[in-house]
Amino acid sequence: MHRRTFLTAAAGATLASAQEQAPPIPIIDTHIHLFDPTRPEGVPWPGKDNPVLYKPALPERYRQIAVPLGIRGAIEVECSTWLEDNQWVLDLAAKDTIIVGTVGDLEPGKPDFRKQLERFHRNPLFRGIRYGNLWGRNLGAELSKPEFVADLKVLAEAGLVLDTANPDVALVDAAVRVTDKVPGLRVVMDHLPQLNPPEGGASSAYRTSLRELASRPRVFVKISQVLRRVDGRVPEDLGFYRSRLDELFGIFGEDRVLYGSDWPNSDQWAPYPKILNVVREYFTARGRTVAEKYFWKNSVAAYGWVKRDPGQPQAGGRLP
């Protein structure tokens, strides 16, 4: 064998060996839901007509599914408009260290918003609120109200996050306007892979809005809800989703994308391991540095979540 060829082969073998010996990348799941339909008061979501979802989704059940897959922590995202369900989730989280943060439900612009925000923000696990295409709300319409914008500024000053919900073209445009009006606010766009890009003239405006969001360092994107149902089936191979992932990654880059499973809502598409496998294959192929950013490091920058267990990677905070 030629000496140069030998050295190249040896270097390749050393690299492959090092990759095999590297510890697995810890994962922080930035999008799960917790609820319990068996409570006396029930739940506002999911409905009884959904047999896949209408059963308790609690930290213990999530832990049993997630930990064997390398999940070390999760951020709960609201799925209830009931004020006291913010406290219900915080009480659940206090009992299980796999929950490293929660994104609650409060309405900016309402008279009691600041009082409620102060109440829940006393708990370091409360990391922000969600507002978007959910519960009959419209982010774009609310931005015309000075009191709504003023409350978003209070949210930003508290170091908390605004998660959006269920993206469409109008919500992407609204997110641009939010960051115009409140540039200090961190915004997390959820489930962008589920948004079907428009065609024709609307396509250009939509992609312009995405690039504008990408130019704003406080905006993050969850590469979540990747799988979708097509003609009655849910493709499970990465090849089916690659072009959409390439587009979003190409726009937002390695420092602004987050992992989220959408569990247990994701069970309507596929079991958790299959949800994870598609994005794990995609980001692992981009190298360990990129995969670490996607699976946990970027979530620290976005949420400043609380490290609660020695098995969790180092984060921005710690419970006293």
Structure, described:
This protein is an alpha/beta fold. Helix content is 42%, strand content 13%. It has helices spanning 3-21, 59-66, 84-94, 113-121, 139-142, 146-157, 169-181, 201-214, 238-252, 272-284, 288-303; strands at residues 27-32, 71-77, 99-104, 126-130, 161-163, 186-189, 219-223, 257-259, 306-307, 317-318. An eight-stranded parallel β-sheet has the order 1-2-3-4-5-6-7-8. A two-stranded parallel ribbon has the order 9-10. Strand 6, helix 8 and strand 7 form a beta-alpha-beta unit. The chain is globular and about 50 Å long.
Q: Give the overall shape, derived from the CA principal axes.
A: globular
Distance between the termini: 61 Å
**What class would the helix/strand composition place it in?**
alpha/beta
CATH level-3 fold name: TIM Barrel
User: How are the strands ordered across the major sheet?
Assistant: 1-2-3-4-5-6-7-8
Mean pLDDT: 92
Q: What ranges have pLDDT less than 50 throughout 5 or more consecutive residues?
A: 4-8, 10-19
